[in-house]
Automatic annotation (TrEMBL):
<dbReference type="InterPro" id="IPR052474">
    <property type="entry name" value="UDP-GlcNAc_transferase"/>
</dbReference>
<dbReference type="GO" id="GO:0016758">
    <property type="term" value="F:hexosyltransferase activity"/>
</dbReference>
<dbReference type="GO" id="GO:0043541">
    <property type="term" value="C:UDP-N-acetylglucosamine transferase complex"/>
</dbReference>
<dbReference type="Pfam" id="PF04101">
    <property type="entry name" value="Glyco_tran_28_C"/>
</dbReference>
<dbReference type="InterPro" id="IPR007235">
    <property type="entry name" value="Glyco_trans_28_C"/>
</dbReference>
<protein>
    <recommendedName>
        <fullName>Glycosyl transferase family 28 C-terminal domain-containing protein</fullName>
    </recommendedName>
</protein>
<feature type="domain" description="Glycosyl transferase family 28 C-terminal">
    <location>
        <begin position="13"/>
        <end position="161"/>
    </location>
</feature>
<dbReference type="GO" id="GO:0006488">
    <property type="term" value="P:dolichol-linked oligosaccharide biosynthetic process"/>
</dbReference>
């Protein structure tokens, strides 16, 4: 595996996004020392967190920290952040998932277990089953990072959405068209 997964860029940025929601459990998880150590061990150099409406403030890194950490609340477009990322850790919003996959970026989707009727987790789990991304919870994020092999992920092509949409529609109880 090694450090060649994202080419030979000097900076290997992990971009974390919660979208427009509040998902403090995810921000807290990526801000934990065990997750930061797991990312550093995989060769990542920067952690950039979009924290949305959350109230938990991540710890900005000290000068001597192994992983540079910064955060912000909202941006008019996260596309530039996604493009510069070597790894994306996202909430389970379909917009964030598909935008990241379209850019061909490795993705870990973290499911918000506090949401009732969380149909987003169905989408994330289906795409994980198809090896397009990794799926985790805030509690399993560190282990997912430690175990991930980005070379085992399959590229996503937009034409693949039909069976995924069909699966979700069936799950939600919509009849086949």
């Amino acid at each position: 595996m090694g450090n060649d997964e994202a080419g030979d860029e000097k900076n290997r940025v992990v971009f974390v996004t919660v979208g427009t929601t509040c998902f403090d459990a995810l921000v807290r998880a990526v801000d934990s020392n065990i997750v930061k150590q797991a990312l550093f061990a995989k060769g990542y150099t920067h952690l950039f967190i979009q924290m949305g409406r959350g109230s938990y403030l991540p710890t900005k890194s000290e000068e001597d920290a192994s992983l540079a950490v910064d955060y912000f609340t909202f941006s008019s477009s996260i596309a530039a952040h996604l493009r510069s990322a070597s790894l994306v850790i996202s909430h389970a919003g379909s917009g964030s998932i598909f935008e990241t996959l379209r850019l061909g970026k490795p993705l870990i989707v973290v499911v918000n277990e506090d949401l009732m009727d969380n149909h987003q987790s169905e989408l994330a789990e289906e795409l994980a089953d198809r090896k397009h991304l990794y799926c985790a919870s805030p509690q399993t994020l560190q282990q997912t990072i430690a175990d991930m092999d980005l070379s085992s992920l399959s590229p996503y092509s937009p034409g693949d959405a039909t069976p995924v949409a069909q699966h979700i529609n069936n799950f939600l109880g919509f009849p086949d068209d």
